[in-house]
Design brief:
Its EC number is 2.3.1.48. Residues 29-215 form the N-acetyltransferase domain. Keywords: Acyltransferase, Chromatin regulator, Transferase. The protein has 247 residues and is an alpha+beta fold. Helix content is 28%, strand content 32%. The protein contains six helices and nine strands, in the order E-E-E-H-H-E-E-E-H-E-H-E-E-H-H. A hairpin with a 2-residue loop joins strand 8 and strand 9. The termini are far apart. The relative contact order is 0.12.
């Protein structure tokens, strides 16, 4: 049975799952941000992990640009895992991603985080490394201490995944990512179109667009508690009930 321990690095406190099958001790795994010297190593890893061929400019960006949250897990000087995310304004998302948040968050101040990649060297998988990297990202964006320039303005973390990548889908669903949408022919891999899913993790008060059920539930809860955000609703309801009773 897996146990848990606390991991502390760069001010981030995250929970790590320790498996009996671990190929290394997580106490010996160090976290650091990518740098330009990592480019060739990162490119070699991504080519091994992912079916998508990234351009040279992508590797240059993630290893040098401050636009990206590019964190590596290092064991004995070797990168054994990494997570790359981009923090961007919600209003600048592509059309297929704009619906991950309610319209209430459609402002220039709302940010979202897009996970471009999360991978672990095969021999070190199922040892908690991927969970560690994801937890550090989540704690950085939603932890008790605000980290400028984001300062809890990130309302969602989302990603795209192949519909056939069952291992990744199970990993994210286990960590409370929600399936948001189906993206037909989203990927082009070796000249063939592949379908994808969008998964979203909500934080800092963010939530998906509401349906009729959500609005009915909200109004009922507001009325039951004596008005909530709409005190006039309770007054009107009480007046209507009084008139009906006397009739």
């Amino acid at each position: 049975m897996a146990g848990f321990s606390w991991y502390l690095s760069e001010g981030f406190q995250v929970i790590i799952e320790k498996s009996k099958e671990a190929k290394c001790s997580l106490k010996d795994v160090q976290l650091r941000f990518l740098c330009p010297d990592d480019l060739e190593e990162v490119r070699s890893l991504c080519r091994d992990w992912f079916p998508i061929e990234y351009p040279q400019s992508w590797y240059e960006d993630i290893t040098s640009s401050e636009r990206f949250f590019a964190l590596a897990a290092v064991y004995k000087t070797q990168i054994i895992g990494l997570i790359v995310a981009e923090i961007k304004p919600y209003l600048k998302l592509n059309a297929e991603d704009r619906g991950i948040l309610s319209r209430w968050f459609a402002s220039k101040d709302t940010l979202v985080a897009y996970i471009l990649s999360l991978g672990v060297v095969r021999s070190y998988r199922r040892s908690g490394v991927a969970t560690m990297l994801l937890d550090v990202l989540i704690n950085h964006l939603a932890g008790p201490v605000a980290h400028p320039p984001h300062e809890h303005r990130v309302k969602a973390i989302f990603l795209h995944v192949l519909t056939t990548n069952n291992e990744a889908i199970h990993f994210y669903e286990k960590r409370r990512f929600r399936l948001h949408s189906f993206l037909p022919y989203y990927y082009s891999i070796k000249g063939r179109c592949k379908d994808g899913f969008t998964y979203v993790y909500y934080l800092n008060g963010g939530h998906a667009p509401w349906g009729i059920y959500d609005y009915v539930k909200y109004v009922a809860r507001a009325a039951w508690s004596g008005g909530g955000l709409y005190p006039w609703l309770w007054g009107k309801l009480r007046t209507a009930l009084t008139i009906a009773w006397h009739r």
